[in-house]
Amino acid sequence: MDTINGPETIVNLPWMSLTTSRIIFIINEIHFHLQAMSLSNKILARLKRRGYKATPQRLALLRAITSSREHLTPLAIYNKARQEQPGIGLVTVYRTLNILAQLGLICEVKSAGENTRSYVASPLEHHGHLICSGCGRVADFTGCNLNDLERQLSHDTGFTIQDHRLEFFGYCQDCRKTSSGEFPPPNPLNEAKKFITSHPLK
Ligand SMILES: [Zn+2]
Ligand SMILES: [Zn+2]
Ligand SMILES: [Zn+2]
Questions:
Q1: 31 alpha carbon to ligand 2 midpoint, in Å?
Q2: How far is the centre of ligand 1, averaged over its atoms, from the C-alpha of 124 (Å)?
Q3: Domains parsed from the chain with CATH numbers
Q4: Of 70, 123, 199, 202, which sits 20 to 30 A from 63 (CA to CA)?
């Protein structure tokens, strides 16, 4: 959010003049980056608890992921992490991303119809994904309510369910706007219960 309604208040400090919307924008940015730093430290701590070393390269890689609002390809993560750790190799990046995704410490997202994988830092709580087939944007949602279905499936098949993943593919509001008529009508899933603000669909 970088605009507010109504007349703008101008704050005049001896060294600069700022509008309130600009101040709110700056505070939001600082808040996001502090959150990103604390999230990478939390993920690193969990990695250590699983017996992996907390190397400077792994921290640089985590910072690259958590400091982005969008999901990133391994190559984009590599390029960002290299700014902090020039010695990091692409193989290390791929290997570490695999470990982190397998441990459920970051989200691995496969684009619809493509064989590309990308990664997002997400809240560590259980959540599902809405994936845009147009621009590739990913939004998280919580509150999937699949307990009844799991219980029924377990009962019918004798299968012990330990976890599940929930991903929906479709088109975000922006992509629907730019190609009107081409895509299916508005999908009620866009109103999914609660969007987490780390990488929302615009
Ligand atoms: Zn996620
Ligand atoms: Zn889109
Ligand atoms: Zn779920």
A1: 26
A2: 8
A3: 1-124 (1.10.10.10), 126-202 (3.30.1490.190)
A4: 202
The pLDDT, as a whole number, for residue 78 is 95
**Mean per-residue pLDDT, 27-32:** 80
What is the structure's pLDDT at 6? Answer: 55
Most confident of 85-94, 97-106, 136-145, 188-197: 85-94
Q: What distance in angstroms lies between residue 17's CA and the mean position of ligand 2's atoms? A: 36
Segment 71-76 mean pLDDT: 87
Centre of ligand 3 from the C-alpha of residue 129, in Å: 10
